[in-house]
Write the structure tokens for this entry.
Amino acid sequence: MARLGKNLTTMDLSYISISDSANLLAGRELSSLELTRYALERIERVDPHVGAFLLPTPEVALQQAAAADERLARGLGGPLTGIPMALKDILSTDGIRTTCGSRILADYVPKYDATVVERLRAAGAVLLGKTNMDEFAMGSSTENSAFGPVHNPWDLTRVPGGSSGGSAAAVAAGETIYALGTDTGGSIRQPAALTGTVGLKPTYGRVSRYGLVAFASSLDQIGPLTRSVEDAAIVLGAIAGYDPRDSTALDAPVPDYTAALSAGVRELRLGVPREYLSEGLAPGVRDVFMQACRLYQDLGAKIDEVSLPYTEYALSTYYIISPAEAMANLARYDGVRYGLTVEGEDVWQMYAHTRDQGFGKEVKRRILLGTYALSSGYYDAYYLKAQRVRTLVRRDFEAAFERVDAILAPTSPTVAFRLGERVSNPLEMYLSDVYTVPINIAGICAISIPGGFSEDLPVGVQIVGKPLDEPAILRIAAAFERATPFHRQRPPLQVPV
Amino acid sequence: MSEVSPVIGLEVHAQLLTRSKMFCGCAAKYFDAPPNSHVCAICAGMPGSLPVINRTAVHYTVSTALALNCTVETESKFDRKNYSYPDIPKGYQISQYDMPIGRNGWLDYRLDGQTLRCGITRVHLEEDTGKSLHTTVDGREVSLVDYNRSGVPLMEIVTEPQLSSPGAARQFFEALRQLLVYLGVSDGKLQEGSMRADVNVSLAPANGAPGTKVEIKNLNSFRSVERALAFELERQRESLANGKPIVQETRGWSEERGITISQRTKEYAHDYRYFPEPDLPPLIMTRALVDELEASLPELPAQRLDRLQNEYALSTYTARVLTGEKELSEFFEEVLRTAPELQPVTVANWVTGDLVRLSKDSARPVSESRISPASFGRLLLLVQSNAISGTAAKQVLEAMFETGEDPHVIVNRQDLGQIVEPTALKALVERVLDENPEMVADYRRGKINVDKALMGKIIASSKGKASPQLVTEILQRKLASDI
């Protein structure tokens, strides 16, 4: 059997895909320990410049890799067995610190695994570490992390997007083969777009939220960040499915997401929402998007204009509903049971001190927004109205999906912006998610794939699907990927050897 | 000063008798358990944990709403009630706001021999909170929290303000407790905190305008409901008489001092910022399920009262005492089932008399005594067959209540069996008459009460074991025949 053996040191495993790794592992040409050590070394070299990881977990990783190798030796491996991955630090990990990017949970060590973590563990995954993020997933640049920002591997002076910026950057920088992120208003897709990776936000309820530390419960969803569409399909297959511990999880069978990847787009009807090509869209991003549409046409798809008239209200709706839910979800961080405690004269003072010192500015802003929106006398004008608009946004999509099989859209209106560029302007920051938020509001699925480049920076293209129609968007994404080289392009990451 | 009348409404909280908590798998029964021993990620509000609705708790609440003659919609939902306190681990309580499980019902109760009706505004389901404990540890004043109670299913029943006196409020509360115990949804143990009440009270002027409402929170006995209301009404009357308006506020009740104390005025009232619980889908039930729950409602107190009177020819009073406690009426019927040859009225008298007295004296419910309906029946059979006297039976019953022993064992050990054998009794009578010739002579001279004195001597000489009924017969015969 041809072993890579000595060649390992020369072979670049940084950008290997899940299926290629799995083949090497299954063929015993590579061991999980080798692959894991490789990744850990890469993290050690690269991450001081990127800042993707909040907590590398080398001991856990090596232990899991050894166990995976045993399992592989007995021929019991699955598609993810022995393959290194990273988790956004908002997913509860038993015995492993989970900070949510917040000072208030800086020392919090959960006593249980999130359902997705449990499923990945059972699949034999190898945990490299927990990734950086905007505090409690609130942000679009990962600059809201209490533990320092993440740098975009394509340009270290730029943001990787957010809130799953650590997961996206780690995948883009070749530090991990895949990572899990969470997406409440675009937090997987926008960083995927800005880092040239694949990011999938599944249908609300497709993946159990049990153990996902809640930001906005009715919008949060866990999904993969990968370097290829096929990898996204493989990871989704492993984490999706019914969970009795999450009452909002859908009890629908999990299809083989890899099955239809090569089916192509011939005769498929793809819609382009008129409202998404608005003035906020950067010309370079617009060009990439129009090219992507033409390519789909060349591939045999039928492109149609569709209208989503309530799009312009989606963002404001999002900024009522998500802070309202966040206000309640974050009320538990009071210094009584876990996390940061800052003493005070009495319990009320302790609450005030703990939360004042524990939460960052953006989190406080959203708690105040949510408190205001739900306050007596304002409920009807804000929260109730937002819920009504939510229904209208959902109907927009339903109407569009009567005419088309999927919708094509830009993921982010701009390429990665510079660190610090938008921190002082929350509204401008919020606009980063203008094309992703409506999908969360509607509870449907979408994937962002590398669509090309503008100013030498990656641009994402988003494919939006009907509820539970992940197989379709993956298939449409895969067709584009086969026809383009963008996903194979590597960031010019200069790392000292 | 114009005439004012009390307007009282109740909010009763009852923990439901489910095996597990409202939204997690922890045991719901926590009484006496070490602090924080019935706690998991969900009921401790750990980050990322999610609630799952306890189906049984929903069914119990639907059954209660139906038994309270409420309208039960098939669609309901849970909401978050947001407020901060160390004993609520999530910073909000999952409750029901604008779509409670039951609405617009009523319950009848008795007051001073009359049947009165009080409207039920709503019945909803929520989770109980943890418990704060303020104490001193190592000389330092600290607050501790026990989350065992956190997440226990809690049903809230809100009445219309239709109770017109402290006594009415108490009687209603008792009737409601009785109903919940009959339904099997609550253990009704106020002393253990599994049922408690908040009361709203105001004085309405005669012109029909509403008075200013005061809420008294956390009353945990029937007595404190009555006392707190009596005190509060007096306080309000006095206040009005002195020209001082009533302040809308929340007050607490001090059992020791017998007074209500202001806790929070309206300006500091919480804004609970209710909104639908996003972690739980709307609560949708089928009409068939509601119908099925209605059809499977157990016999309720009013129905049982009627049935006991009709089936066993019991007086209204006796039937009321029996049905007052569900377990008492069940005990009664179980005795008759195991010993059908007993007279129902006799059994009822023994149950409502001696058994209830023993239960009250020992502050132990009949169900927690060691006496079984079957052994109780065997005891009454001994009395019916004259094998023991009524007096001895009371003595045996006391022993049974403590030890749970069979009545025959106690009778034998304590030698309480009656002498009923005719020749032995005749010999006893003759010996006493022989020893007391002067008394016999007195009797014959017509002196009264001599026969009673002789009776006493005969019974005493048998060490109390001679059957009084049979001795009387023999003695009368003897005294008469020798004339």
Observations:
- The first helix of chain A runs from residue 18 to 26.
- The longest strand of chain A covers residues 445-454.
- Residues 1-9 of chain A have pLDDT under 50 and may be disordered.
